[in-house]
Amino acid sequence: MEIVDIAEMTKNRRHLHRYPELSLEEQYTAAFIKEKLVSYGLAVEEGIGGTYGLLGILKVNDGEAIGYRADMDGLPIVEMTTMDGTSENHGCMHACGHDGHMAMALALAKYSSENRHRIKYNLVFIFQPAEENHGGALRMIRSGFLEKHRVKYVFGVHVAPEIPEGYIGCTPGVMMSRIGMFNIEIHGTSSHSATPQKGNDALLAACHLVVMLQSIMTTVTNPLTGTMLSIGKIVSGTADNLVSAKALLAGTMRSVEQENYFALKHALEKTTQSVVNTFGCNAVVHFEDEYPEVNNDLSLYEVLEGCIGKQLIKLEPQLLSEDFSYYQERVPGLYIFVGIQNKEENCIYPLHSNQFVFRDEALTHGVDAMIRVFEKLDVM
Question: Of residues 25, 71, 79, 131, which has the active-site annotation?
Fold first, then answer.
């Protein structure tokens, strides 16, 4: 028996890939998903969290529910693949696999509806906008749907080009890092470059600060645990013969351990003030804590392991981040990676590449794994 309707899943994925939409602009995507869910016999709730988010509800009893999340948004990237069904929305591409995530969720919804006699929990399929930015998960969670539908567990899936096709990657406990974004404004005093002693060079202070910030990780955090600080942007200066009066640094911080994250955050603020003051400048640090860690529930991991056996690859914690972690702060959850690497088919490009591509057939392994988990949870 064919568990996954591959033809239908492929058709859905190619359609979604052809018409990507950016974060909080997923109007057409949501309309297509709604049409499919209704055709599969699910109830639909729209406008979740004041966005284009929607839920597909499969109610089989008056009990609790399992939640399954799929993200909807594309990226502002010009596609350079040759796959059938390339983006027709120029400058927007599903370069992070969200088309595949939605196609898997729709395949699960279709199978579950057709086999509802095998399902003991109600199912809530969560189609979430704005995973790439704008806090789509929190917007949906704050609508109260988890409580309304009595969601007991939540699952999420992401395609992974580092994992060979046919395998599933996961780990119990922390699997993905906490992330914070920061920018640092350095204020100095301008002067002519012929008389630099009359100014306070914000650019010079910024350059020294970049070096110092890269070095503090080894002095304030455990080097055996995953922690990263990266400066991604520096902007300064208005002319080639002036001492710069202002500089802006922007970057990110990540850690798989809360203790390291907050230690590094404190050290960043302290080091910044110390370095820039040395050059007669002052600084303002703007810090925004973003997503918490993706923290997989041990019991759910063990269910997955029991269901797929040698197909499972146990991963080390990674410095990627995901707003799926917000769901896990509310209810026990499990996030898994579905392998899509296929060197023979040139499916080798990383996430967010303009050449990112994978075979539709690779998605069947994720759908099959989740069906097995759902049916195993029936008897827990």
Answer: 131
